[in-house]
Recover the amino acids of this structure.
């Protein structure tokens, strides 16, 4: 093979220059191998389009989320720097100058997302505050020397466009030789004094300041060595009067960590202000960390819930993605990656996904569908179900007449579109109702509600009935607030059918208002029963619910408010039953729904150890040979060598005697080879021994065993316990 | 076999058995109830026998066997109930904890020891020569094969009862036990036994471990009711306990046999290869099918690589051939670098070097690896028309698994126009990557189980059983030396001799340049230290010598080849001349 050699490990292959020019367009890979699948080009383009849109939307969302945070940060920076700016001789100012202004930025544990935040923060700072923004990571700064080196080199790069070429090279030499705080401050003096003379793009944008501060971002404050951090803070506080430094700590855990890392003597040199990632702040009142971390996820879900994207995820996929998010990494980036992958998989594997675009475009595309694609439509399970429910002549037409099929598909797609618009409106509306219920029977977040709705008929679930029962006990003011919200939800949409719904809600609202005067009296008359109810917990509620039922049975008389409330709840119930049908019931849902959750899990959240174990333990799983079929837990002796060796080694404790192992192996293997009772030749023994050697060295490569010196000719086992 | 040795061991073993026995005694007493069904019953049995030494051997054995079968049945059922369903296999049985096994083995041995009371041995000693061999071995009792030998002596009588239970597990033709192997007949039978035992035990192990551990945790009487319920509760607890129990005792009991006693101890690489080439791979049809399945993914891989994902392949079997096929079918028209992670001399530096020097045609050096990385990153960012495919076999190899290497490769792979497709094999490979690195890599995982042998991957390794012949460095040495002038050869030979003279000196760091010069001058090989230096440069270029600065600042010269090879080399040289 061209890529194996005993003298080198890297092999570079360069095609001829001419050849390289002809690069294969990416969409060609969209074909699955030999057989060219339908409309692959179009599908790929649609994929690109939707993905770009999704990406920009999510980026925009994150930007918005960050915006408030950045604004307050910038304000803080400007304020804290003003002291230096004034250069006053005021005593208190002098004291304050001893303290390095520090912003502690609590960003949460999803470390992978921090990079994005910091990047946009740097941009924002450079635009608004100062050209001198440096960000350092702990792994670059094992000691003070590297710390300063990095700092200086980055600072120099910051204003490289100001300096001329020769100066740069001069700096390069300096960088190597001379790195100290003194050097830094003299450099700073130099730059700021000569600065105004040299007109620069950046300087003018922050032109209001004579001497812009230097902002140093420590991206992962927790992983810095304390010594470096302490030293740096002490030294730079000495130079603060000539070198206006502002620190920003990126903190993943909690602000307490600052005081744990820095002793009092050092932290007193800092003037710390805390900044929570603002989106979290809104939710800080809710204790669950889930809620602290998932707001951005929440917003992305909002995005998914809009009809803006024709592409939809099925319940299982959604569940898989949220599980990965909640239980593995808390990373929005990874979530978006999962989204991208599911989008890609959908367009790659489903030929009809070509219709997964906005409605007018889809209609246009339907008319161009090839015969094969028409067949594909007919093969869709949901479509077949739909056909079966039609009259027989229509069935025939659908199955034979292409034109008719296309027309029907168009109308079906339209229906699907309408279904989605209504679906999300009603979902939101229902969420408004259920999110305020005690104990959240249908989940607090809209995504939980969405998942349950996708999964099955929600009205069949126990949670739904209990939620409705709870709704029947809502107090008037609460109900009115919710109705208001629902009204605005419906009003914001321009749905045709649901326009009447908005009207209905409005009617309800006015009825409630007209009730106002009478209701008050009635409430007083009927005692404080509903009021007492609304503060109790679920248990008491249910108990009193039962009592209420009894009461209702005995005394039929209801107040007008109760009648109206009943009406509202029934109305909501009817809405839910009408519009929140699970997507599987809709014909052609396969076009827009991606449901292969297992592929997602396979590719995003793989389990290599399990795969390895299965391959070793149960070769039949991969090699579908009947001879390999065996009972649970044992393998036939004709299994691949490595499986047998593995199986044998499982029986040993920490150390394995190679001789015993090899003999056991030989017995098993010879048993498999010599079933005719023939004698075992010497050569065969040799070969078996060689096979054993191979199996052992493969197990070593896989990390199951390692050589040990504890005892001669022994190896140590490296695995134990459950995986 | 080695009776003396065995007798020496005897004392120790007896005590160990006693411990186990005592423990079970206590358990039994505390529980007050007789424990049935499990291993412990063997001990109960054994105890009974100790009390009545006149009890018949045969009966006991049969009883034991019945118990074993019972346990087997349990063993078959319980793992299924434990299955967690989500994984396609008994995921919870993965690497089931084996160390407990040991004490169990001993427990079993103990019972066996106990049921062959001294008296009967002594009378047997007189009649039967065959048993005399067996008895001391059985008292040694810790090697699995020996343990089995005891059974073996009874085998003729019990074969029918035993094999019905045992043979079922391992599909071995019964005629096999007659087959002649290199060993004596009894020996090979032993091994079969061992193998069978192994097979059988693997089924029991999970169950019996659990039960036994349970017996210890929950004091006896309750435990026989519903083992599976408690199992779940105690499971994690047990695992932890078991781990520490197994690792606390420094003493590990295994047999003392060594490879030297075996005739064919170590093979060298070449013979190994020759031997293996004679083996015809089984299941070739299925393997081909597997491979075809993987090959169908090539297009998809290309697509996903282009869309910013990177691909990592995992699963049993060498993925080298698969990647190679991927390379030849898909990458012929694009620039790509193949990196053999398993190559012992690989480093990130060499990877970066091949990118800068050969792909980007850069001449010049870099101050550090990080500088080089930055340069590459910038280059690729600036020129979006550049495209590079990186194929890394064994990204998890010894040389590349370090944090820094992974960080650098990750940064490379995070570039839009560098596409990385890599394979991992090691069990714990995913531990290399924290969240930050994973987000750099942006992996898509693909399971590609191929079952193909890791021929290339393991050939460089100092494998356990493979003798390092050193033929490779030797032949390269000879080749290089042949191309040199006689003087240069002389110089090199001087250095070799000096090094060989000092091979027993542990603090030998090399020959200092000055001394070397003196010696060469005396042998009329060089006339000035400049010529010597010129020669040395040549050696250095061929990696024949290494220079090292000593503590005193003097240069020391060393040949980085092991002494055996050097001696061989000298011999060969002398033959030729």
């Amino acid at each position: 093979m061209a890529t194996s050699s005993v003298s080198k490990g890297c092999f570079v292959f360069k095609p001829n220059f001419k050849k390289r020019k002809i690069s294969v367009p990416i969409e060609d890979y969209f074909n699955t191998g030999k057989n060219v699948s339908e409309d692959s080009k179009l599908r790929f383009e649609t994929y690109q389009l939707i993905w770009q849109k999704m990406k920009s939307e999510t980026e925009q969302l994150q930007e918005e989320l960050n915006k408030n945070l950045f604004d307050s940060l910038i304000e803080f920076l400007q304020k804290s720097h003003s002291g230096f700016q004034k250069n006053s001789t005021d005593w208190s100012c002098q004291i304050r100058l001893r303290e390095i202004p520090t912003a502690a930025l609590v960003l949460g544990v999803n470390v992978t997302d921090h990079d994005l935040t910091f990047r946009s923060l740097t941009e924002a700072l450079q635009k608004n505050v100062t050209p001198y923004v440096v960000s350092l990571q702990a792994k670059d700064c094992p000691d003070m020397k590297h710390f300063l080196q990095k700092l200086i080199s980055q600072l120099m790069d910051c204003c490289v466009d100001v300096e001329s070429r020769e100066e740069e090279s001069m700096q390069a030499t300096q960088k190597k030789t001379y790195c100290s705080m003194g050097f830094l401050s003299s450099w700073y003096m130099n730059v700021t004094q000569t600065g105004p003379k040299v007109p620069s793009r950046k300087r003018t944008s922050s032109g209001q300041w004579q001497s812009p501060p230097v902002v140093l971002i420590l991206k992962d404050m927790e992983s810095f060595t304390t010594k470096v951090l302490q030293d740096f803070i002490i030294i730079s506080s000495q130079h603060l009067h000539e070198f206006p430094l502002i620190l920003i700590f990126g903190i993943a855990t909690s602000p307490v960590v600052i005081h744990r890392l820095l002793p009092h003597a050092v932290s007193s040199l800092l003037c710390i202000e805390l900044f929570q990632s603002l989106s979290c702040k809104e939710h800080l009142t809710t204790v669950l960390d889930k809620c602290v971390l998932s707001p951005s996820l929440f917003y992305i879900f909002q995005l998914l819930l809009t009809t803006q994207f024709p592409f939809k995820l099925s319940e299982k996929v959604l569940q898989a993605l949220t599980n990965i998010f909640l239980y593995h990494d808390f990373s929005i980036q990874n979530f978006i990656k999962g989204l991208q992958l599911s989008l890609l998989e959908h367009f790659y594997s489903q030929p009809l996904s070509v219709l997964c675009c906005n409605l007018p475009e889809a209609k246009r595309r339907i008319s161009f569908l090839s015969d094969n694609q028409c067949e594909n439509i007919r093969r869709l399970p949901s479509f077949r179900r739909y056909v079966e429910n039609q009259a027989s002549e229509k069935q025939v037409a659908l199955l034979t007449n292409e034109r008719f099929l296309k027309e029907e598909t168009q109308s079906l797609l339209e229906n699907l579109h309408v279904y989605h618009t209504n679906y999300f409106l009603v979902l939101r509306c229902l969420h408004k109702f259920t999110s305020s219920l005690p104990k959240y029977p249908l989940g607090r977040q809209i995504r939980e509600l969405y998942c349950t709705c996708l999964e099955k008929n929600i009205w069949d679930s126990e949670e739904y009935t209990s939620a409705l029962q709870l709704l029947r006990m809502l107090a008037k003011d609460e109900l009115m607030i919710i109705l208001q919200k629902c009204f605005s939800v419906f009003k914001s949409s321009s749905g045709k059918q649901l326009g009447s719904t908005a009207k209905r809600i409005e009617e309800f609202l006015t009825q409630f208002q007209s009730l106002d005067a009478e209701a008050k009296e009635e409430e007083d008359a009927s005692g404080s029963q509903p009021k007492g109810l609304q503060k109790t917990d679920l248990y008491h509620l249910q108990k009193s619910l039962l009592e209420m039922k009894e009461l209702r049975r005995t005394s039929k008389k209801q107040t007008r408010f109760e009648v109206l409330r009943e009406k509202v709840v029934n109305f909501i119930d009817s809405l839910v039953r009408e519009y929140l049908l699970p997507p599987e019931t809709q014909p052609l849902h396969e076009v827009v729904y991606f449901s292969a959750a297992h592929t997602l899990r396979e590719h995003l959240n793989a389990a290599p150890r399990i795969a390895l174990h299965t391959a070793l333990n149960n070769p039949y799983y991969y090699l579908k040979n009947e001879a390999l079929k065996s009972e649970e837990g044992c393998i036939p002796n004709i299994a691949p060598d490595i499986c047998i060796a593995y199986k044998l080694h499982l029986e040993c404790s920490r150390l394995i005697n190679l001789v015993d192992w090899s003999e056991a192996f030989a017995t098993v293997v010879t048993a498999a080879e010599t079933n005719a009772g023939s004698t075992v030749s010497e050569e065969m023994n040799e070969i078996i021994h060689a096979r054993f050697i191979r199996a052992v060295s493969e197990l070593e490569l896989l990390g199951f065993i390692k050589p040990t010196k504890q005892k001669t000719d022994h190896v140590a086992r490296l695995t134990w316990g459950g995986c | 076999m080695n009776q003396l040795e065995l007798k020496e061991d005897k004392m120790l073993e007896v005590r160990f058995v006693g411990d186990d026995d005592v423990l079970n005694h206590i358990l039994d007493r505390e529980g007050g109830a007789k424990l049935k069904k499990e291993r412990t019953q063997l001990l109960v049995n054994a105890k009974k026998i100790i009390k009545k030494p006149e009890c018949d051997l045969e009966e006991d054995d049969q009883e034991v066997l019945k118990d074993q079968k019972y346990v087997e049945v349990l063993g078959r059922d319980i793992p299924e109930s434990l299955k967690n369903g989500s994984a396609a296999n008994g995921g919870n049985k993965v690497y089931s904890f084996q160390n407990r096994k040991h004490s169990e083995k001993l427990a079993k041995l103990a019972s066996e020891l106990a049921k062959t009371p001294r008296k009967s041995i002594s009378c047997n000693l007189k009649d039967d020569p065959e048993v005399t061999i067996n008895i001391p071995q059985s008292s040694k009792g810790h090697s699995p094969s020996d343990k089995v030998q005891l059974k073996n002596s009874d085998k003729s009588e019990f074969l029918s009862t035993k094999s019905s239970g045992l043979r079922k597990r391992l599909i071995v033709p019964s005629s096999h036990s007659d087959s002649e192997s290199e060993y004596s007949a009894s020996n090979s039978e032993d091994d079969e036994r061992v193998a069978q035992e192994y097979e059988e035990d693997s089924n029991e192990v999970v169950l019996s471990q659990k039960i036994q551990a349970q017996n210890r945790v929950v004091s006896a009487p309750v435990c026989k009711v519903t083992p599976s319920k408690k199992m779940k509760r105690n499971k994690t607890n047990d695992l932890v306990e078991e781990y520490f129990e197994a690792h606390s005792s420094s003493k590990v009991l295994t047999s003392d046999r060594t490879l030297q006693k075996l005739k064919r101890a170590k093979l060298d690489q070449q013979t190994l290869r020759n031997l293996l080439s004679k083996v015809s791979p089984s299941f070739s049809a299925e393997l081909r099918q597997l491979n075809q399945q993987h090959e169908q993914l090539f297009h998809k891989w290309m697509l996903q690589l282009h869309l910013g994902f990177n691909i990592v392949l995992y699963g049993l079997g060498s993925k080298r051939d698969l990647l190679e096929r991927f390379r030849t079918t898909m990458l012929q028209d694009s620039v790509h670098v193949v990196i053999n992670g398993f190559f012992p001399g690989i480093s990130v530096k060499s990877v970066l070097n091949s990118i800068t020097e050969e792909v980007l045609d850069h001449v010049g050096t870099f101050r550090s690896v990080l500088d080089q990385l930055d340069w590459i990153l910038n280059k690729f960012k600036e020129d979006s028309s550049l495209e590079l495919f990186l194929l890394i076999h064994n990204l998890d190899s010894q040389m590349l698994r370090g944090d820094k290497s992974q960080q650098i490769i990750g940064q490379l792979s995070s570039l839009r126009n560098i596409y990385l497709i890599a394979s991992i094999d090691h069990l714990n490979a995913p531990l290399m990557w924290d969240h930050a690195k994973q987000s750099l890599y942006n992996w898509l995982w693909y399971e590609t189980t191929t079952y193909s042998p890791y021929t290339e991957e393991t050939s460089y390794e100092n494998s356990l059983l493979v003798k390092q012949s050193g033929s490779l460095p030797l032949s390269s040495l000879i080749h290089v030396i042949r191309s040199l002038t006689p003087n240069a050869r002389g110089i090199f030979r001087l250095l070799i001799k000096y090094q060989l003279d000092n091979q027993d000196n542990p603090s030998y760091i090399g020959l200092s340049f000055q001394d070397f010069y003196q010696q060469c001058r005396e042998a009329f090989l060089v006339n000035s230290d400049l010529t010597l230096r010129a020669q040395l440069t040549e050696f250095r270029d061929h990696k024949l010598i290494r220079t090292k600065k000593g503590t005193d600042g003097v240069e020391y010269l060393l040949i980085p080849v092991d002494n055996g090879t050097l001696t061989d080399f000298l011999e060969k040289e002398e033959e030729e001349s």
Summary: Residues 176 and 189 of chain B are 9 Å apart (CA to CA).
